[in-house]
Design goal:
CATH topology of chain B: MetI-like fold
Number of strands of chain B: 0
CATH architecture of chain A: Orthogonal Bundle
Oligomer: heterodimer
Number of helices of chain B: 11
Order of helices and strands of chain A: HHHHHHHHHHH
CATH architecture of chain B: Orthogonal Bundle
Distance between the termini of chain A: 28 Å
Number of domains of chain A: 1
Shape of chain B: globular
CATH superfamily of chain A: MetI-like
Number of domains of chain B: 1
Strand content of chain B: under 5%
CATH class of chain A: Mainly Alpha
Largest interface: A-B, 87 and 88 residues
CATH class of chain B: Mainly Alpha
Number of strands of chain A: 0
Strand content of chain A: under 5%
Structural class of chain A: mainly alpha
Helix content of chain B: over 70%
Number of helices of chain A: 11
Low-confidence stretches of chain B: none
Mean pLDDT of chain A: 90
Low-confidence stretches of chain A: 1-13
Radius of gyration of chain B: 22 Å
């Protein structure tokens, strides 16, 4: 369809302004003012994030999220590669399976993983309340990010450059490392960044299988929920703001690099 | 080499996604279909399912109406602070669901900014607000690019021919964006049914009263030690997720066509 840019109407009319007003009001009441309340509440409770359990939870969350993002870079590239370059029966089904973690409620993800890797594990592998369980749960919910950002780029990669490299005697691994990988960097960074940001705030998938043991497997979101439960809203707000600041930093850096 | 890569990729997906999913289905139905049905039709389960559906029934129209207004404002108007509004629309994607719950308590709660003037927390309005927060970007982000793509020529032609603003919207704009709206609605429904983190903080989680399907799964597993019941309720949620996935695939095809 041909899209012709017409000059914007000089007078948008009052109807348009009402729309802008309604949208602004809606976003303010639903999103902005409640978040502002968190920010304001955190002022004066800042020492709360230096509490040992809070500091541990924040560091653990960042560390585990980084590990999860890195694993996703490797496995995501691998799966995207197989989905783009390989042909086998049932490929369309495998492609659909990749989306399952996005469609599945996070609490179901927790239960699903527990059924295989929990106390009643049929394969005798009980990861309940361990750090590997946290990694596993976060790998599950972040599975699609890297795959879905690398896949389209891989489809567009110039095959001629690979063939040229091959005719010059480069092996499969060299071609991948020198020709394909550089083209994938932005997509890898973008996907990993999104996975990292998602892992930072994740709660539902971790809550059952992680166990939430303070200073061991308790992630930041669990710590925050507990502070609300024991009626320490100031402390919850402070840790929330710290976590939000990290997420925003990641997303901001991501935007900078992807441009 | 090719075979090794394929095996590794499929193995990873199997271990992480497929085998655990199969396992939970097996656990749900190992005592037969009747046991499953009985477990998901207890009074608490029925009330959880109806609460989840009630929330969806309120959140979807809210998100469609305000999502369309917001998308139209962002795609069609120039106004000061537009960049800020764009960023605010994406905020819910970057905020942990638990923090959403904290934010709602600090704003609407008894000790919050509104001093509890509007009874929201621990009741249906609070659960609706939490769900609206986490699903807010979907309709806007699906519709806004379509609005930009279709441009304004047809709308302006209609206006020139004497159509009112309302007529133009119903006859020209809405038909053009309906697939985008539908996609946004499917995403909203899926996310609404699955929301857990924000609701844990905001909802009381009282069985038969303020317990959604996801909260029921958690309560059955943790509080009641009813593992089978948790699996059964999870299977219901998985079925709903599957429906979502199928609808998304169908809409994706229509969008490409």
């Amino acid at each position: 369809m041909a899209v012709v840019a017409l000059p914007r109407r000089a007078n948008p009319g009052s109807g348009g302004l009402v729309g802008v007003g309604v949208a602004t009001l809606w976003l303010s009441v639903v999103v902005l003012l409640p978040l502002a309340a968190v920010l304001v509440k955190s002022i004066g409770s800042w020492d709360a994030i230096t509490a040992p359990a809070a500091r541990y939870a924040l560091l653990l969350t960042v560390g585990i999220s980084a590990v999860v993002a890195l694993i996703n870079v490797v496995t995501g590239t691998l799966i995207a590669w197989v989905l783009v370059r390989d042909e086998f029966p049932g490929k369309a089904l495998v492609n659909a399976i990749v989306d399952i973690p996005f469609a599945l409620p996070t609490i179901v993800a927790s239960i699903v993983l527990l059924s295989l890797y929990g106390p009643r594990s049929p394969i005798g592998l009980d990861l309940y309340a361990t750090k590997p369980a946290l990694v596993l749960a976060l790998l599950f919910v972040t599975l699609p990010f890297v795959i879905r950002s690398v896949q389209p780029v891989l489809m567009e990669v110039d095959r001629e450059a690979e063939e040229a490299a091959a005719s010059l005697g480069a092996g499969g691994w060299t071609i991948f490392r020198r020709v394909i990988l550089p083209a994938l960097y932005p997509a890898l960074l973008g996907g990993a960044g999104l996975a990292f940001a998602r892992a930072l705030g994740e709660f539902g998938s971790v809550v059952l299988i992680g166990g939430g043991i303070p200073r061991d497997t308790e992630v930041a979101s669990q710590y925050i929920a507990k502070q609300i439960e024991i009626d320490r809203p100031g402390s919850a707000a402070a840790v929330s703001v710290a976590l939000l600041a990290i997420s925003f930093l990641v997303l901001f850096v991501l935007r900078r690099f992807s441009k | 080499m090719r075979l090794a890569l394929r095996t590794a990729a499929l193995g990873y997906l199997g271990v992480l996604v497929l085998v655990p999913l199969a396992m939970i289905l097996f656990r749900t139905f190992e005592d037969g279909f009747v046991a499953f049905v009985e477990s998901v039709t207890t009074p608490a389960a029925i009330s959880a399912i109806s609460l989840s559906l009630t929330i969806v029934a309120i959140v979807v129209p809210l998100n469609v109406v305000f999502g369309l207004v917001t998308a139209l404002a962002l795609a069609r108007r120039e106004f000061p602070g537009k960049g800020i509004l764009q960023a605010v629309v994406d905020l819910p994607f970057a905020v942990s669901p638990v923090i959403v719950g904290v934010a709602l308590i600090l704003f609407w709660g008894n000790d919050g900014w509104l001093g509890g003037a509007v009874p929201v927390i621990f009741s249906l309005p609070g659960m609706v607000l939490a769900t609206v927060f986490v699903t807010l970007p979907f309709v806007v982000r699906e519709v806004e690019p379509v609005l930009r793509e279709i441009g304004t020529d047809q709308e302006e032609a209609a206006a020139t021919l004497g159509a009112s603003r309302w007529q133009t919207f119903w006859r020209i704009t809405l038909p053009a964006i309906r697939v985008g709206v539908a996609y946004g609605v499917v995403l909203t429904v899926a996310r609404s049914l699955g929301e857990f983190g924000a609701l844990t903080v905001v909802a009381g989680g009282v069985a038969g009263e303020s317990q959604t399907l996801t909260l029921l799964v958690h309560a059955r597993y943790i509080d009641d030690h009813n593992t089978f019941g948790a699996y059964a309720a999870s299977t219901v949620l998985m079925g709903l997720a599957l429906v979502t996935l199928v609808l998304m695939t169908l809409l994706e095809r229509r969008r490409k066509a």
